[in-house]
Amino acid sequence: MTANTNTQPDALRLADLIDQYNTGVCSQAIYEDYARAAAELRRLHAECEALRSVVDRLLSMDVRGYTLADRLQFTTAGRSILDAARAAGEMQ
Q: Please, where are the H alpha helices in the chain?
């Protein structure tokens, strides 16, 4: 097995592969399914990057003595993350 030298994130690399394999597909339904799958991978990648950015900002905040959950309460995006985690039963 060879090492992957591609520095592109996996989600984007997979989306590009789906687009590549989707070229010339004769079935419109399959073409549309592949296109939706590629678009969803790109959307999820963008969402993940946005969440990483929020977490990075929160971790860099000067709020000594506060937990990450406390820090999340200081931002609108953080409150949304906490609400989603609580709804999923991941936090009290």
A: 10-22, 28-60, 68-72, 76-87
User: How confident is the prediction for the chain on average, in pLDDT?
Assistant: 77
pTM, rounded to two decimals:
0.58
Contacts of 63 (CB under 8 A, 6+ apart): 70, 71, 74
Select the more confidently predicted residue: 79 or 36.
36
**How would you classify residue 24: left for phi > 0, otherwise alpha for psi between -120 and 50, otherwise beta?**
left
Q: Which long-range contacts (CB under 8 A, 24 or more apart) does 73-79 make?
A: 78/54
Tokens matching residue 80: 């949304």
Asked if residues 41 and 14 have their Cβ atoms less than 8 Å apart, the reply is yes
The whole-angstrom separation of Cα 13 and Cα 8 is: 6
